[in-house]
Design goal:
The chain is α+β, with helices and mostly antiparallel strands. About 55% of the residues lie in helices and about 5% in strands. Helix 4 runs antiparallel to helix 5. The N terminus and C terminus are likely disordered.
């Protein structure tokens, strides 16, 4: 056995295993993402063992949070859901596996150049891992098991590729064998491009066209606010919009983060209608889905009497503290009031007053008058509803098109045509 072959074989074997593991984890992540292209709700794989599906009770698991975040895909405005970043990750890991097999059969001067190509690819993969792990753990506060599997595979592949490069760097090689680094880099670059571009192109060609649904999911007949129940949130220089939400609703929190990340919130003049899914004030539900939501909604309305900026502060605080507020309220019905009063003393005297309770009641009656479904979040742009199926992965795609249609004066026509069709 030639010395170069013997030196890098163990590390190359580790590289092959890491690349194969990364390919499996990235493949299941891509599969989960692609399932949602039918605009329905699906279980997701969320396990260190590829193929294991998380149960419905884990709807808010780290994998779910990560997938529905603005960072799970790119080109979201160009296509529904965008291109999942796990898809190019599949291509990179497949390339590393292919090059690992190639290295096993090499024991000449070209091994050094080939090892460097693998090391550079693994370094890029590691850099992407560091960025995405930082976003997941710091920005999203989520621990996605599939993602962690990809991170571990990436780190292992980098270490293995570094060992391969070091083991081939100082070996004696057969004389007269071409050791052209530029040629090897060009060859590896072309191969990597193919491994990444071909699956991405197939994905784009096969994905369904969801533009037909934009602007067809209903409307508000009377968007007037005679009782002043709406609270301005965000910039107010764009298209008039109404957002129906619950401050303790995890889906509303995720929707807000996606909307801000898309920067489309800057094109809307949003008025919030509070719709707490809490039976303490909402007679439309029989059980509190979000305990404490009535009290937090009152706090938002109380803060809005001072300024919209203060109301936004309460909303932002409620989004950040959702889990703690709901958990505390289950054991103590007054916990939400205590927590919000401690964080915002200026609204303490207003909480529970007849005035704010009446205003919240009118907010709920406004939803009844306009036949708003018992569901949060909901967004109406110029009176036209953003489809519920487009509030997560399809938000950038659908909302940007609604805004374009509104600018052309087509949103009204599309909505009425849809409602008139059998």
């Amino acid at each position: 056995m030639p010395p170069a072959f013997a030196a890098h074989r163990p590390a190359t074997t580790v590289l092959l295993v890491a690349a194969l593991a990364g390919l499996f984890f990235a493949s299941f992540s891509t599969y989960d993402f692609a399932q949602h292209l039918d605009r329905q709700v699906h279980d997701i794989h969320c396990s260190f063992v590829p193929g294991v599906v998380s149960g419905a009770s884990e709807a808010n698991s780290g994998c779910q949070v990560t997938m529905m975040s603005p960072y799970s895909s790119v080109l979201r405005k160009a296509m529904w859901g965008g291109l999942p970043i796990s898809l190019p990750a599949m291509g990179v890991f497949a390339f590393l596996f292919f090059r690992g097999l190639w290295l096993l059969g090499r024991a000449n001067r070209r091994t050094r150049a080939a090892a460097l190509a693998v090391l550079l690819t693994a370094t890029v993969c590691l850099a992407a891992t560091v960025v995405m792990a930082g976003i997941a753990f710091v920005t999203l506060g989520a621990a996605c098991k599939l993602c962690i599997g990809i991170y571990c595979a990436s780190v292992t592949a980098f270490i293995a590729s570094l060992l391969i490069w070091r083991s081939t760097k100082w070996q004696e090689h057969e004389p007269g064998v071409d050791d052209s680094l530029p040629r090897e880099m060009m060859s590896a670059g072309a191969q990597l491009s193919a491994f990444v571009a071909v699956p991405a192109a197939i994905y784009v060609l096969l994905m369904p066209d969801h533009s037909q649904f934009v602007g067809t999911c209903g409307r508000i007949d009377d968007a007037k606010d005679p009782y002043g129940v709406m609270v301005p949130i965000g910039p107010q220089s764009g298209v008039p919009s109404i957002e129906v939400f619950d401050p303790l609703c995890p889906a509303c929190r995720g929707f807000e983060r996606r909307l801000v990340a898309s920067r489309l919130d800057r094109k809307l003049a949003r008025q919030a209608v509070l719709f707490p899914l809490d039976d303490r004030c909402n007679w439309m539900i029989s059980k509190a889905l979000h305990p404490g939501a009535c009290t937090i909604s009152e706090a938002v309305l109380c803060a809005a009497e001072h300024s919209s900026a203060r109301a936004e502060e309460v909303i932002a605080w409620a989004f950040d503290q959702q889990d703690q507020i709901r958990a505390a309220t289950v054991g103590d019905p007054e916990a939400a009031a205590k927590l919000v009063a401690a964080a915002f003393p200026q609204v303490a005297s207003c909480l529970g007053s007849a005035k704010v309770q009446q205003r919240l009641n009118r907010s709920l009656r406004w939803t009844v008058k306009n036949q708003i479904p018992v569901l949060t979040p909901q967004l109406y742009v110029a009176g036209r509803k953003l489809c519920d199926e487009d509030t997560d992965l399809g938000l950038d795609f659908a909302l940007s098109r609604m805004l374009d249609m509104h600018a052309r004066g087509e949103l009204e026509t599309t909505s009425r045509k849809s409602e008139a069709s059998p």
